[in-house]
Write a structure and sequence with these properties.
single chain, eight-stranded parallel beta sheet, three-stranded mixed beta sheet, 32% helix
């Protein structure tokens, strides 16, 4: 494996993703800020561990954060502002408490309060609600999922401008299937018809709220319901939020701001550099395919050093 101080390539992204692979704002915010101050991150290719990349922050203009409980992100916000960096948060907030599908997260009420605080601090356009993923179980049919979605919308719609959702991918991942089977609740991914029923129900709920609805990396066409194919790393949103940033605008107008070829075919994100690492999130979400072993992920998170070069 390449030495920690001997990267084999260098990247100088304009957009940084933190992160699709793990919850950096919830679990590694101190490390993130330390590396930002140092001016670079080291990232290991999960499919080729010998490939270590030095990710420079010299050109970074936008950071896209993904999180399920970004409380630790609140203290550094002022420093991010001082550095002149733009950022927004993809905040995943599901109501799977009764099923115990997200055992490492705080109670739902606490997460809603944090969403409110973050929205008040950043503004509703910069805190995007993700209801992700949608799944079903023996006691969790389409009507119950929509009932919970309505309750969440009543709390969150005044605090955001966009709702992004996706459908669970369970059959593709053996480790996920085994974890869900051990729970004995009959959790499964929605059928094609159930996906349409869920989408239709969400669109109907949204008539009262007027959020921008998007799917995440889903090929199903829901445009007739007013639901677009999503772009979590969204150049259009960046242009609306920060039109005066000439360097960012030049990037968005350039060939570099193409669709991210490293993502799934149905993903609409533009190119960014993700600095996360699989198998490091301690939340233990049962449906998660980014951690093959939740116990190993918790051990790794516990041993993590905020002053290290990598997660």
């Amino acid at each position: 494996m390449a030495a920690i101080d001997s990267p084999v390539s260098v990247a100088e992204p304009v957009v940084l993703s933190a992160s699709r692979a793990t919850d950096i704002p919830a679990c590694y915010a101190d490390w993130f800020m330390n590396r930002l101050r140092a001016g670079f991150f080291l990232w290991t290719n999960p499919f080729r561990p010998s490939q270590v990349q030095r990710v420079s922050t010299a050109r970074v203009r936008v950071i896209v954060f993904w999180s399920k409980h970004p409380a630790a992100l609140l203290p550094p916000l002022r420093e991010l502002d001082r550095r002149g960096l733009h950022f927004y948060v993809q905040y995943t907030l599901n109501d799977w408490e009764a099923e115990g599908l997200e055992p490492g997260l705080p109670p739902l009420a606490e997460r809603i309060r944090l969403f409110r605080r973050l929205s008040k601090r950043l503004g509703p356009e910069r805190v995007i609600w993700r209801m992700d993923p949608l799944l079903l179980a023996d006691s969790l049919g389409v009507p119950e999922v929509l009932k919970r979605a309505r309750r969440l919308a009543e709390n969150l719609a005044p605090l955001t401008r966009r709702l992004v959702f996706s459908f669970a991918d369970i059959e593709r991942y053996a480790s996920v299937r085994r974890r869900l089977a051990r729970m004995g609740i009959g959790a499964r991914e929605p059928s094609v018809q159930e996906q349409l029923d869920l989408a239709c129900g969400i669109a109907e709920i949204n008539r009262a709220f007027g959020l921008e609805l998007m799917t995440c990396a889903e090929s199903v066409d829901l445009s007739e319901m007013g639901i677009a194919h999503g772009r979590c790393v969204d150049g259009g949103l960046m242009a609306r939020l920060w039109p005066g940033d000439e360097e960012l605008m030049a990037f968005l107008a350039s060939p570099q701001a193409r669709k991210d070829r490293g993502q799934r075919r149905a993903c609409g994100c533009l190119a960014s550099k993700d600095i996360g690492c699989y198998g490091t999130c301690p939340h233990g979400c049962v449906y998660c395919y980014a951690s093959a072993s939740p116990a190993a992920a918790r051990r790794r998170a516990k041993a993590h050093r905020p002053d290290g070069n990598r997660i």
